Amino acid sequence: MDCIVLSNVVKRFGNVYAINGLTFSIPCGGRYALLGPNGAGKSTTMKILAGLIKQDSGDVSIKGMKPGTKQVKKFLAYLPEDPVPYRILTARENLEYFASLRGIPDPKGRAEELLELLDLKQYEKVQAGKLSRGNQQKLSLALVLIHNPEIVLLDEPLNYLDIPTQEKVIGLLRNLNSTFLISTHIMSIASRLTDHVVMISKGRVVWTGSISDLKAMGREDEPIESVVSRMMSNDL
Ligand SMILES: Nc1ncnc2c1ncn2[C@@H]1O[C@H](COP(=O)(O)OP(=O)(O)O)[C@@H](O)[C@H]1O
Ligand SMILES: [Mg+2]
């Protein structure tokens, strides 16, 4: 069964087509990257799936339901581009607050667990608005994943993180059993976190398939980044 389905989706801002006939689907349990250059329409796609904006035409469904419904929000996580935490609350208060909102039986325990897991313990008493953008990003991830969501949408999750923290977060995300869609413009991130890519440019799918098929399309010893840029440039 497909958990995420987009069919001929169009979204315009004024006379700019952010999404221009986008069609792809993700099977339940699939791990997919939405790969494309800046302005390709990745964040717009994520916002439509999160129910934040509505497409002008085309169909979108999540487990057969419309995005943004109460039912869908129960099992969905969405990491936006902007920081998630409530700025005046500390890191720990944010975690306990989100855990309570999500109806988690032991909010304090869950907060503790995530502080440990993401090395945020030293910042537990710091107001979120005072944290570095990288630590806000880590806290954002912890907040959106707090309820062990079944479907996870992450818009450029590794942005702002330094290399050791990226490694930590990659390890954590690889351990999730969720259906998974992350947007990125970096192929090496896609290949470490997912097994399929949906490559988009100018709001349309350029290519979709498994990362191993993508690698096989390269010339001998050709880096995967080079295969991707050739495929992207064919479209331009
Ligand atoms: N709220 C908006 N108002 C006007 N134009 C927008 C808006 N959001 C996105 N766009 C435009 O739509 C296109 C796709 O943007 P976006 O989805 O953010 O791309 P990506 O995340 O792949 O970089 C870009 O040309 C962008 O300028
Ligand atoms: Mg974006």
TrEMBL record:
Residue ranges occupied by any ABC transporter domain in the UniProt entry: 4-227
Keyword Magnesium assigned: no
Gene3D superfamilies associated with the record: P-loop containing nucleotide triphosphate hydrolases
InterPro entries: AAA+_ATPase (IPR003593), ABC_transporter-like_ATP-bd (IPR003439), ABC_Transporter_VariousFunc (IPR051782), P-loop_NTPase (IPR027417)
Keywords: ATP-binding, Nucleotide-binding, Transport
A Pfam family it matches: ABC_tran
PROSITE patterns: ABC_TRANSPORTER_2 (PS50893)
SMART domains, alphabetized: AAA (SM00382)
GO molecular function (one): ATP binding
Name the record gives this protein: ABC transporter ATP-binding protein
Organism: Metallosphaera tengchongensis
Taxonomic lineage of the native organism: Archaea, Thermoproteota, Thermoprotei, Sulfolobales, Sulfolobaceae
